[in-house]
């Protein structure tokens, strides 16, 4: 069965650089979520999209933005990267209350 | 106070014994409750969900929900070394985003 695809799996960026993370949800899932998980932390909700429209916003810094495109894939854009942005970034898609998570992107800011 | 709280652990349980994981939540409007298992560096994996008060059993796993006490638990019977992971409690209010607890790290001792 198709899963949630995230790319890249690993990303190393320097401070003040920009990063773009991509997420391809499961076909026919209508909602996409982005979560950030720091070392030893629980996943923190960043932002979600329902049918390509932003549906909810969590603790997402102003330096971050996201969108969902016509083909339903989503991108998380992160600018002016800081060391504290180093984390696992998960995308999840759902149809109803059941999430399926992607494998995540590990971002390291040096 | 966090919206979802878990006993932070770490929790060590002998192989073959019962592991008990606890979670409390603050929003009385919460409707859906989930337990995710997360291996280090991997994405969360749904193992149990429960909507109604009482117990729900699936194989070696039993989820228990008490809405009056705002309490949900997960029991793992006949614990196996492969059960060693972090267990995340997650709560959903209506069709909104999942809110995660901080997780309980469980170690099964052979």
Q: What does this protein structure show overall?
A:
Chain A is mainly beta. Chain A has strands at 5-7, 10-13, 19-24, 31-37, 44-50, 53-57, 64-68, 74-78, 87-94, 99-101, 105-109. Chain A starts with a strand and ends with a strand. Chain B has 110 residues and is an all-beta fold. Chain B contains no helices and eleven strands. The A-B interface holds A 33, 41-43, 45, 48, 56, 58, 88, 90, 96-104, 106 and B 32, 34, 41-46, 49, 88, 92, 95-103.
Largest Cβ-defined interface: A-B, 20 and 20 residues
Report the mean per-residue pLDDT of chain A as an integer.
Answer: 94
User: Which class do the helix and strand fractions of chain A yield?
Assistant: mainly beta
* Major pleated sheet of chain B: 6 strands, mixed
How far from one another are the termini of chain A?
Answer: 36 Å
How much strand of chain A? over 45%
Question: How are the secondary structure elements laid out?
Answer:
The complex is a heterodimer of chains A (110) and B (110).
Chain A (H helix, E strand, L loop, with lengths): L4 E3 L2 E4 L5 E6 L6 E7 L6 E7 L2 E5 L6 E5 L5 E5 L8 E8 L4 E3 L3 E5 L1
Parallel strand pairs in A: 2-11
Antiparallel strand pairs in A: 1-3, 3-8, 4-5, 4-9, 5-6, 7-8, 9-10, 9-11
Chain B lengths: L3 E3 L4 E4 L4 E7 L6 E7 L6 E6 L3 E5 L2 E6 L4 E6 L8 E8 L5 E3 L3 E6 L1
Parallel strand pairs in B: 2-11
Antiparallel strand pairs in B: 1-3, 3-8, 4-5, 4-9, 6-7, 7-8, 9-10, 9-11
